[in-house]
Amino acid sequence: EHAIAHAVELARHDGAKGVLARVDCVPEFPANLQSSSQEAVISYTQELKRRLAADRITLGELHQRLSGRGPELSQIIVDGFPDEELPKLAAKLEAELIVVGSRGRTGLRRWLLGSVAEHVVRRAEQSVLVARGDAVPGGYRRVVFGTDFSPLATAAITRALPMLATDARIDLVHGW
After folding, report:
1. What are 117-140's pLDDT values in tens digits?
2. HEC states along the chain?
3. How many CB atoms lie within 10 A of CB 26?
4. Which of 53, 90, 116, 173 is the most buried (most CB within 10 A)?
């Protein structure tokens, strides 16, 4: 929800179009499971399919709720793993920005589960905004830019400037 709010606000600010994407999958299990495992796998798969169906309904409801409130939005459902499919989808759609949310897992939970946002940042060729907290109407007002004076750091700052409020305070930090 936070990521979507950020994306909608940015699209509204820039007059851009947005795509609400839901990426999920039902894993395939080996065909030669022991009979003792089959019942558990069937039960797990049915529950996962039920949850995915509910998530897809929620996406449609979200799309309907946001439609007509600013930027033009479409929706798409992609089967696969989000950290792999979001960058592919963005490339296919020629998107300039991917906006993802982050639960902020740390420590053992992050190590065990990984971070979709982190993987998307590493795999995407486009800019990625990892949203946490509420969207800021009218642009970001307090911003820290980190730079190593490389062309990519300069490009990141240039890309972020239009997302700022007119009265934004910027701190430029160089770390080495």
Report:
1. 888 999 999 989 888 877 778 888
2. CHHHHHHHHHHHHHCCCEEEEEEECCCCCCCCCCHHHHHHHHHHHHHHHHHHHHHHHHHHHHHHHHCCCCCCEEEEEEECCHHHHHHHHHHHCCCCEEEEECCCCCHHHHHHHCCHHHHHHHHCCCEEEEECCCCCCCCEEEEEEEECCCHHHHHHHHHHHHHEEEEEEEEEEECC
3. 13
4. 90
